[in-house]
Design brief:
4-stranded mixed beta sheet; alpha/beta; 2 domains; CBS-domain; about 400 residues
């Protein structure tokens, strides 16, 4: 999940933040407006006029990106989905929702809300440009508003391209979901369509560079490459969700892991609980009352110079429990995935009525995904079933629990 960035405030009681990449993007856009777009349309003005109007145009454009994401967020709320916040970043913005839409109809409405808002902003900006010109406002402001309107219309059309992670990909997924009744399979197909769209965008950028001899094609290539990467990530995620099905956390977590005391030294942890463990090794850290206070990982241990292990306590280098997401044994693994954070090593603490019962780690999730894929693969072609009833599952092997297919109500 994306980090929250720098907090900017709240709009409609939705927390707004910005990634640091927005600063770079804003500076680049202001420079392009001030040095190219505005002077080409309105010549002979002082440099200060170009730069001041360019800065204003950039702020208005960032505001239009926020309006786009607010469109998604407001419609999501109307469909009973909690909005965690909106983050503006280098390639636009993202509205973070706590859960997925319950029906294909809700998915479709949420997906269309962003482009619809961009079209509204574009139309209002173009109308304002015409109105200002008719009353004699300086032409540079008219040009800036006209540019803002045109860019928002282009943004809306671009976002409706039929491939994830674009809004058009969400629309495509919702429509497939309506027809086929399978949400995850629809999203996998939308992600694959997104890869095809990304290839076309990269090809268009390459043609712009090598045929038209335009350096702006490099930006097009970068956008296409980003979309390709995001589409691949989405396809991988939804294929993993298919494999996990409705598997509960209890079947994927490391049960009752051995713990270490907070006052133990890092050297003790290295030679004890963390010894001979895998790359994702993690053990809970408890206090004198056996309450969990954090998690010690192999990654945290490796950041500390070996000569300091004997004099540094685990409490000094562990991940505090306040920075770790929590889960319950009965939750579905897929519902926990969005709460996992890179900063915490992708680890979640599993609690049952406040008592530590396990850890959900990347290794455990990978193991559960592999098990789910084997369970859904079925027998190989030509193989014979030798027993009618499968043998009991050995202790310690997770058991997949599948939800029945959604009914007709899920398609509306």
């Amino acid at each position: 999940m994306r980090t929250s960035g720098v907090r900017l405030g709240r709009v409609f009681d939705i927390e707004i933040s910005a990634d640091l990449g927005v600063v770079m993007f804003a500076g680049l856009l202001t420079w392009i407006l001030a040095s190219s777009i505005l002077p080409a349309s309105v010549a002979g003005l002082p440099a200060g006029a170009y730069w001041s109007v360019a800065a204003l145009g950039t702020l208005l454009f960032l505001g239009s990106l926020l309006a786009h994401e607010l469109g998604h967020a407001v419609v999501a709320r109307r469909n009973d989905i909690e909005v965690l916040g909106i983050t503006l970043w280098l390639f636009g913005g993202v509205a973070q929702l706590r859960s997925d839409a319950r029906t294909a109809g809700a998915e479709l409405r949420i997906a269309l809300a962003g482009p619809a808002m961009s079209l509204v902003v574009g139309a209002l900006s173009l109308a304002a440009a015409v109105g200002l010109r008719s009353v004699g406002v300086p032409e540079i402001y008219v040009v800036a508003l006209g540019w803002l309107g045109l860019v928002n219309v282009v943004l809306a059309v671009f976002n409706l391209l039929p491939g994830a992670p674009l809004d058009g990909g969400r629309v495509l997924a919702a429509l497939i979901w309506m027809v086929r009744g399978d949400r995850l399979r629809a999203r996998v197909w939308a992600a694959r369509a997104g890869r095809a769209v990304a290839i076309l965008i990269v090809a268009a950028g390459a043609a712009e560079v090598f045929v038209l001899r335009s350096s702006s094609g490099l930006w097009t290539i970068m956008v296409g490459w980003f979309l390709m990467t995001a589409a691949r990530a989405e396809e991988s995620r939804y294929r993993s969700e298919e494999a996990l099905g409705s598997m509960p956390v209890a079947d994927a977590m490391d049960r009752d892991p051995a713990s270490i005391r907070s006052w133990s030294t890092v050297a003790d942890a290295a030679s004890g609980a963390l010894a001979d463990r895998g790359t994702w090794a993690a053990v809970p850290v408890v206090d004198a009352d056996h309450r969990i206070v954090g998690v010690m990982t192999l990654a945290r241990l490796r950041r500390l110079p070996a000569e300091r292990w004997a004099t540094t306590t685990v409490a000094d280098v562990m991940l505090p429990v306040s920075q770790l997401p929590t889960a319950t044994p009965g939750e579905r693994v897929v519902s926990v995935l969005d709460r996992l954070r890179i900063q915490s090593g992708g680890i979640a603490v599993v609690l049952d009525q406040g008592r530590l019962v396990g850890l959900l780690t990347p290794e455990g999730i990978d193991r559960a995904i592999s098990f789910g894929r084997r369970a859904t693969a079925g027998p190989s072609p030509g193989s014979r079933t030798l027993i009618a009833v499968p043998p009991p599952v050995p202790d310690g092997v997770p058991v997949q629990r599948w939800e029945p297919p959604g009914g007709a109500d899920d398609r509306r």
